Structures are given as C-alpha cells and as structure tokens.
TrEMBL record:
Any one Gene Ontology cellular component term annotated for this protein: NELF complex
Sequence segments annotated as region (Disordered): 559-592
Organism whose genome encodes this protein: Sinocyclocheilus anshuiensis
Domain of life: Eukaryota
Gene this chain is encoded by: LOC107690668
Name this polypeptide is given: Negative elongation factor B-like
Gene Ontology biological process: negative regulation of transcription elongation by RNA polymerase II
Amino acid sequence: ALARLKERERLKMFAGLPELGISNGEDLKETLTNCTEPLKAIDQFQMENGILLPTLQSALPFLDLHGTPRLEFHQSVFDELREKLMERVATIAEGKDEDRYIKLEELLEKSFPLVKMPSIQPIIMQVLKHLPKVPEKKLKQVMADKELYKVCAVEVKRQIWQDNQALFGDEVSPLLKQYIVEKEAALFSSDLSVLHNFFSPSPKTRRQGEVVLKLTQMIGKNVKLYDMVLQFLRTLFLRTRNVHYCTLRAELLMSLHDLDISEICSVDPCHKFSWCLDACIREKFVDAKRARELQGFLDGVKKGQEQVLGDLSMILCDPFACNTLVLSTVRNLQELLSQDALPRDSPDLLLLLRMLSLGQGAWDMIDSQVFKEPRMDLEVVTRFLPAMMSIVVDDYTFTVEQKLPSEEKSSLTYPTTLPETFSRYAQENRVACEIGLYYVLHIAKQRNKNALQRLLPALVDTYNDMAFGDIFLHLLTGHLTLLSDEFGSEEFCTAVFDNFLLTSFSSKENVHRHCLRLLNHLHQKVLASYMETLMKTLEPPKQSSESVKDLYTLLKEKLEASKKSPPEPEEAPSLDLGLHPVTVPSTPTTPL
C-alpha cells in the first residue's frame, strides 16, 4: 500500500508535463508496450525528448566511453539551466521594463502545471516571490496545498495573509506566546543583580530578539498585516492584562522604524511619539527637551482623532516606558529638593505624572473604548509626594542625630510608622503606588536598612497588589543583594520575609518563586536558625508548579552542600550604581 501511495505521488509530480507537450514516464511506458523493436523505440524517445542541439548528438558517445550515465549529464545541464533561469527571473523583476511583470506572469502561467515537480518548483517559487500581485487563482492553489504553502516565500504568504486573518493569526499566535514566555523567564531569572536586571538591555538590543525580527519580516511593508498584528496585541492585552503585549507593540513599531519602512511608520500616528520615548528609554531619563516634545504630541491630539490615545496609552503602559517615567520622577524630585521647590511648581514633573496616569489607564481606556485622558488626582502632587518627602526628612534627621557627639544626642528613635497619607494613596492610587514602590527600590539601592524595614510592611496592602507583581519583585530581589550582610540579622529577615514576602506567598505562587530565587542567591548570608524556619515554611505543596519545586530542591541541595564545605568569601558588590550626582543643600533635607 505504501509503495502504491509513493507511486501515485510520483505520478502526480510529472502529471503536468503533457499539458506542456512534454512526454512523461507514462508515454514511454505506452511506447514500449506497443512497439516491436524496443531499442529503436528508446533511441527515438531520447531523440525527441533530449536536448535539441544537433552538435550535441555526436558528442554524447564520448560520455558513454567515459562511463558517464546520460542521467548524470542531463541532470547537471538541468541544474545549470535552472540556476540561470532563476537569476534571469530576479534580473527581470529588478529591472525597469514596464512589461517586466507581464513577462513573469506569462512564465508563471506556462510553468505552474509543474509546481509539484521538485526540480522545477524552485523556479515557480522564484517567479511568485517577485510578483507584487500574484493572480488570485494561483494564490488559492498555493494556500490550499499545505506543501506548497510551506515552501513559498514570505512575500507570497503576505499576499495570502492579508485576505485571510485567521490563517495569519495561526502563524502569529505561536510567536506571541513565545514572546510572553521569554519575558516571564527573564523576570524569574536565577541571576540576581541590581546592575543587570530585566530593564538592562537597550531598546535596540531588545529589538534584535527572534520574535520581533520574525514579526517584522512577516509584516514587511504591508500596512494591513501591521494593523492585524496591532489588533491581535490589543485583544490579547484586554484578555490577559499582560503588559508585555504593550512592550511588543512599541518594539514592533520601532523595529520597522530601524528598517526605515516609511510605508508603515508614516501612517502610524504614534510613530514620532514612540521614537522620542524610545530615546528616553535608552537614556533611562526624560530630559526637559524631550519632555516638551512628548507633551507636544499629547497636546496635539485633535478632536475626532482621540482614538490614537488608546495606542499612546498602550505604548506608555510598556513596563520599559513606565520604568523610565518613574525613574525620571524620582530624579526630578531630587532636583526639586536641592532647589527647595515644590512638586506642583514643576511642569516636567506634572508631565511625567500625566504620562504615567495615561499609561496606567491603558487597559480601562481600550476596554471601555472611551478615548479620553484620565483625570490626574492632584492630591498625588499636593499630599502624597509631600508625605513621601516627610519620610526622607525623618531618615535624614535620624542620620544627623547619630553623627552628633554623645552629649548632644537626644533620645530620638527611628520612626517605625508611616504617614497615613502615604499608605492610603499607595493603596488607592495606582500612580502613587508605582512611585512609592520605586522609592522603596531607591532606598534599597542606597542600602538604607532602617527605611527599608519601615516601608516594607506597608507594601502588603497596595493598589491592585502591585507590590506582589513580578516586575517589582524581580527588581526588589535584585536590590536586596546589596544588603546581603543584613540578612544575618533576625530583625532584617523578619522585615523582608515575615512582614512582607511571606504574607502572600501561599496564595500567590509567583511570590513563592521570588522568595526561593532570593534565598538561592543569599542562603549563605541568612541567619542559620531563621533559614531552617524558612525552609519549613517554603516547602512547596503538592499542587505547586514544577518551577517552584525545582527551585526548592536546588536550594535544599545548596544548603546541604554548604554544610559539607565552608562558604568561600564573596567579593563586595560594586558601589557604582549609576546614581546621578545631586547638589544637596545645607538645610535639613536629603535627596531621595
């Protein structure tokens, strides 16, 4: 049965030859069946179907004398002619003749009956590739045949996809899944560092990722396909709330920008805004000049074009954009402190908060289809930020107190509670919460143990549990490596684990994973008795995922190995944290 199937497939390959007036195997079989002199019949068949070059006939016997089979000779000539023809097709397509595509269509019409013939197929695929508009009938034939669809060039597939959204979706879907898996894998990386984290790769480096490059190639210059991908991303963002789809939306546009695909960039109203924001992300800072440009784009959204706000909000919801905006906010506050100025007096700060608010409201805007900038809560500026500044003042006052001679010291103790306004806004306002979380990262980077112990318990209850999101926990665990020596203190361990991480690890598996990531990195520094308790607490239940179980097993093995051999002394982490120098006034204020 298998042999018969193979024979049928073989016959299919050569079925197109008779259409072109060329004899095939069936013709030879019929000739040999009906002839009286088979040898003469074979000679006649060879004469009629061989290379029609009179001077060649006398030369062929020399090949026979050298033992070269006729098949080998004809195959070598065929291969050479095929390469020449494919080169000629490319030359015609790249030429400037007005009738160049007519010539290619004529060649396609003549050769297409042999499309299933492996030796001829590359020529036909080459013709299809160079036709800007393949005849509809041929496109349908290619689409209907899985083998042909698989081998045809992406230029041909684009013409098929633009009228078949479901088929294009099937092609794109695995790439989008792969992208999300890669981003989540980066957030759960076993490498913990304050200098090399999720946000370390530059925008251009990220755009060299496999998924972005493949999607860019699939889209080419086709605006319709680009719009389809954007629609897929919006739909998936709405369905999952996964902000990595926002990152891909921005990366895709900038990847097309890198390739100078003006056909798409010129019609995407977000292009110039994304280009400017991309430069800010590269610098991890929004300077005054770019802030004015970004504000110009936002203020320039005309009546009747408000729908563009949906795409702008999605671009601002990208975690890399958000990271840049909040870091710029913190740096802006540092500069305001050095100038004794108030937050409400800084137009740049107000713009950063406006963009943060627009980005944080992306899901609501796209879901409701009400394209209007969310109203910014001014009390974030007038009440929340001053409350955050009061924490800085408390910290500075305590630090100065500790440096005084013993006879001048008062009985001042480090405060343990937080201003009610700070806690309330971190719970009720997403922009305030984001700024508060980055302030926690900032003090961790400064290795300020006291402030960290004071703030971590307040993160148990934040807006939409943002403090237990993967991005923040990824950054926090990296920043805590700077305080590795402090984990020898039960007080510090209690603040980090009991008062924060362990409050939700049993209900949030991602928190469980981040706890284990941190301990895999710092287990040698953690107080032995506390580590023992942690191991019992963090033992994964049966229903846990394999990743949690694997991390726990790895930690267990490391602890057993460290009992057998003493730990090697670690090198002190670099103090170069990339912080910007800020002039500090002599008045009792301190930069964040």
